Amino acid sequence: MLILTCPVCGVTAEETEFHAGGEAHLTRHGPGASDADFEDYLFMRANPRGVHFERWRHVYGCGKWFHAARCTTTLQVFGTYTAQTSAPPQEILDKIADARPDWTPRTPG
Amino acid sequence: MSTRLATGGRLLSKDKALSFTFNGRRLRGFSGDTLASALLANDQMLVGRSFKYHRPRGIVASGAEEPNGLVNMGEGGRFEPNQRITTTELFDGLTATSQNHWPSLDFDVGAINSKLARFLPAGFYYKMFIHPRPLWKHVYEPIIRRSAGLGRAPTAPDADTYEHFHAFCDVLVIGGGVAGLQAAKAAARSGARVLVLEQTPHWGGRAPVDGGTVDGKPVDKFVEELVSELADMPNVTLRNRTMGAGVYDHGYVLGYEQLGDHAPEKPGPRHRLWRIRAGHVLTATGAIERPLPFAGNDVPGVMLASAVRDYVVNYGVSPGDRTVVVTNNDNAYLTAIALKYAGLSVPAILDARVLPTDSPAMEQAKALGIRVLMGHAVSSVKGGKRVTGVAVCSQSGEGAVLEEIACDVVAMSGGWSPVVHLWSHCGGKLLWDETQAHFRPDVDKAPIGADGHGFVTPAGCANGVMQLDAILADAVQAGEIACAAAGFRARHSDAPTAEPSGETPMTPVWMMPQGAGIKLRSKAWLDYQNDVKVSDVQLAAQEGFESVEHAKRYTTLGMATDQGKLSNINGLATLAAARNVAIPQVGTTTFRPPYTPISMGAIGGEARGDVFQPLRRTPMHDWHAANGAEWEPVGHWRRPYAYRRSGESTHEAVMREVRNTRDKLGLLDASTLGKIVVKGPDAPRFLDMLYTNMMSTLKPGKCRYGLMCSENGFLIDDGVVARIDDDTFLCHTTTGGAERIHQHMEEWLQTEWWDWKVHVANVTEQYAQIAVVGPNARTALERLGGMDVGKDALGFMDWAEGTLGGFAVRVYRISFSGELSYEIAVDASHGQAFWDALMVVGADLGAMPYGTECLHILRAEKGFIMIGDETDGTVIPQDLGLDWAISKKKEDYLGKRAQARSHMADPTRWKLVGLETEDGSVLPDGAYAVAAGENANGQRNTQGRVTSTYHSPTLDRGIAMGLVLHGPDRMGEVLEFPRLDGTTVKAKIVSPVFYDPQGEKQNV
Questions:
Q1: Do B448 and A99 touch (CB under 8 A)?
Q2: How does strand B46-49 pair with strand B56-58?
Q3: Which Pfam families match (chain A) (predicted)?
Q4: Would residue B9 be called left, alpha or beta, if left means φ above 0 and alpha means ψ between -120 and 50 degrees?
């Protein structure tokens, strides 16, 4: 059971206080999008071994969504950050680079 | 025979005699006994039967690793199977019965399996019961199921209570032996909050039994002082009878405290589940002695050497008069010496090793006059239900018998394995220690915490450190590492010193004798509970089950309730030898929590009965209950299904409610409907994205029925939206959908359109809402007075605020029944009073409450869909003929792109129609309409299914809705629906609107 810190209210809490919301930083494809783009947006999810960006909601706390950067193998949490961004902030990327020098961001698609 | 010694028993209070029963026999023990030691004291070595062959099984161990001593405990609401006798503290009045035999423990018919053992090797069931296939279901499976499982399931509800407890500490020490206690002290000196858990009632672990001195004091004196020192430290909490059950992510640990098992008369919960968050976890879980694989090592009387020592020293019990010790290490000599000091006979020590010089232990044994046979082994054990002797051979040979020695106990020791379970639960890795022939924690590969650093440190025997002096030094180091990892500055103090023991290294022995043939190997047990022998593991390897996880499942090695605490390492070594690889290459199976089984009651905690899932009640709940409501669970709510009057069946009540509402006046408690306020300058735009309809064009004062789809295009909710003012909307959702839709809105606002100025609030419970339905509805409201509810002032799909009978109300002129209908919201606290007022003014108008089943029939007669009946997560609005509610003008809404996919536009999608049975009967819910031909599985092809079906009292016939292939184009066609009883019912495709298709009744 993980421990996460909600970046909105600042509370560090048990995983049971949160709800996982899957892969972060997806781009919405609506009317006019190609079948391939739409399929990718709706169904295709990365499931990396290692560094991963996820959406979480502080469902039994302040109710706000946020993002977490986490290692899926060691469960190390590199940091949590605002949901109102379409890419991880530099500060989080720096923390990941410190802990995982060999890591390179996944190219979308 | 086994018996109580006149002296000894450091854990006993001999002034407190206790009486208990085993298989109905009244026996006596002492306070401080375990059930196992008390049974041994009463010469009850035979305690059960093995799972597969029903072989006689005796007590092997003295702790949590015991595989054989499992009994049924208690009676009635306190009956529990598979209780381990070696960890069950004796109390006055304890009742236990043995398991897995018929008709009796001594004479068990199932033991015939033992004679058939040659024909029942590993994988027997897989091979035998596969052919012929039809026999599996009707013959094999019922028989195997009947013989499966140890013990009986309880039949009465659990009479005890349980609780959860949340605890936080900087350093959690699991294990209260010398290592755990010394480590706790080292950590606590830093000021860190330290919690120490010990699974047994006693502190100090094995050390007081094995003896020695620390800082010049006897070990038990040292332990006593250490415990009292820790107890005096304000930052230390000690808990015995509390097992560290499992280690989970980021320092989460479950502890299992047994509060009432040893004292059933004590008030309060029986078990307490500790939910612990620890800054750092220190595992000082000790080690478990391994059996030796030799023929007949499962005969009652063959025990672990350490267990024999425990029974003599701790409980003053002699397991037998004559004990042969068989070993591959020095440690077992302690048993021979302890037996000698207790005045018992040790005819020989068979030591498989060949040493150049005698070890100190050997010298001591010889000095006591014990015969030590180096390089010797057990060829086979003599006896059936009790050991009568051993045949001795050379370890290096094939088992040729050199001599036979009469004895009634064989004390065996194959070396010690650290208890690495808790280290491994959350991913801690192991390494193979060649010298001591065991796996121990690889401290460089600890389980990782949130900060990326290891959060578990092993100490003492659990770390593969086996000698007292080294254990104490290791514990101090581990304690200092643990408190530093938890953020405290360690205050170093030197470890206490014990005299070095000078043990000579052990020699690994994985088969005794080394060259044993198949006859001996097929009698050499690895797993006592599941009857897995050396020959079975070899067969598994031979048949290609080479992976340790495959071999485990093929043979069931380590799959019993003891989870292979004794058998795992011997099994791995046997598999490694059979595959001709090194043991570390075979690896271990996965260690999973809990360490030993914990009660389901403890896991459930307080969440039983009424508090399992709290109910949501509307403000009028008590009125409904007092007026005959039969409840229907809807989400967490309870809604009245129907209000039964005396002499009425539920069906009759529903029919009455429908007729009364159509003819006169019905009242529905609609408070459970979701009510979500959406407010802000961007609210119109936001609702245009959420609903398939255009909501931005709705005028204040008006209502509109709307549909909500998921981004995948499927219909997820529906309801009426009222525009309160320019930037405020009130969205009604289904009863079950309020929280879900509120979260759906929040998710899109927070994660996609976060720059839009909109707030949403779920106000469902702020209002009581009452639907006033029927031809007399307006008259009733006019009698209350206060606002104009006439046709011109408040037309269909209008809403208005005002007062009725002095109550501040919001009135919605909406209808889910097809009747003249008002849904009226008042403050929740006024709900009951307003309901009462309506019942008073409506008394002579025929006012009558109606429930959810009546609501369903009313809406079905009108062809209104219900989320969850007409929809199932695969239905789009277009399937339901709701195209009119889908805006063509909007560029985008959630689900629009999805609905443009080819599959969604497929003309062969089943579409909504009404169904009328030819004979007027009610179609079975969920029934399928069959089509010509069969599918690939030989099943009838289908062309539609029933989604809602009722008896309509208005039409006095069965009516239904369903989804049918090309349905709307096939009006008048007759479909066939098979019933479960094999008969078929015919139904005609009709319009789903059965009643008042022009809507004249609701528009008055």
A1: no
A2: antiparallel
A3: SoxD
A4: left
Tokens 């028989």, residue located: B143
Euclidean distance between the first and final Cα of chain B, in Å?
Answer: 96
Residue B506 gets which letter from DSSP? P
Q: pLDDT tens, A8-65?
A: 999 999 999 999 999 999 999 999 999 999 999 999 999 999 999 999 999 999 999 9
Contacts of B925 (CB under 8 A, 6+ apart): B946, B948, B949
- Is B892–A1 a contact, with Cβ atoms under 8 angstroms apart? no
In chain B, residues with a C-beta closer than 8 Å to the C-beta of A1 are 248-250, 252
Question: In CATH, which of 1.10.10.10, 2.40.160.20, 3.40.910.10, 3.30.2270.10 is domain A3-26+39-84?
Answer: 3.30.2270.10
Residue ranges per domain, chain A?
A: 3-26+39-84
Question: Which of the four pLDDT bands, split at 50, 70 and 90, describes residue B124?
Answer: confident
**B931 neighbors B939 (Cβ within 8 angstroms):** no
**Residue B589's pLDDT band (cuts 50, 70, 90):** confident
How many angstroms separate the Cα of B311 from the Cα of each of B201, B339, B528, B930? 16, 10, 20, 72
Q: List the beta bridge partners of residue B643.
A: B629
B897 with A63: Cβ contact below 8 A: no
Nearest C-alpha in A relative to B710: A42
Q: What are phi and psi of B66, to 5 degrees?
A: -60, 125
ipTM of the assembly?
0.97
| DSSP assignment of B280-349 | EEEE---EEEPP--BBTTTSTTEEEHHHHHHHHHHH-EES-SEEEEEESSSTTHHHHHHHHHTT-EEEEE
Quick check: B514 pLDDT over 60?
A: yes
Both tokens of B192, joined, read 């860190």
Contacts of B249 in chain A (CB under 8 A): 1-2, 15, 75
Question: Distance between CA atoms of B909 and B568, rounded to whole angstroms?
Answer: 57
What percent helix, strand, coil does chain A show, rounded to 5? 20, 30, 50
Run of H or E including B738: helix B738-751
Chain B partners within 8 Å of A14 (Cβ): 252, 277
How many Å is the Cα radius of gyration of chain A?
15
Q: Do B250 and A42 touch (CB under 8 A)?
A: no
Tally C-beta pairs within 8 A across A and B: 68
Cα B327 to Cα B855: distance, rounded to the nearest angstrom: 79
Count of Cβ atoms closer than 10 Å to residue B252 Cβ: 21
Question: Is residue B174 within 8 Å of B189, Cβ to Cβ?
Answer: no
Enter the tokens of residue B445.
């590969």
State pLDDT tens for residues B220-247. 999 999 999 999 999 999 999 999 999 9
**A75–B898: do the CB atoms touch at under 8 Å?**
no
Contact B464, B208 (CB under 8 A): no
* pTM of the full structure: 0.91
Q: How many residues does chain B have?
A: 1004
Q: What are phi and psi of B655, to 5 degrees?
A: -60, -40
| C-alpha distances in Å from residue A10, one per residue of A80, A86, B198, B389 | 10, 21, 36, 70
The closest alpha carbon to B602, from B907, B934, B242, B284, belongs to: B242
Domains (range + CATH), chain B = 9-119 (3.10.20.440), 162-287+418-485 (3.50.50.60), 291-414+503-509 (3.50.50.60), 674-765 (3.30.70.1400), 907-1004 (2.40.30.110)
Residue A109 is predicted with a pLDDT of 44
Whole-number average pLDDT of chain B: 95
Phi-psi domain of B972 (left: phi exceeds 0; alpha: psi -120 through 50; beta: other): left
Type of residue found at B709: C
User: B20 and B80 in contact (C-beta within 8 Å)?
Assistant: no
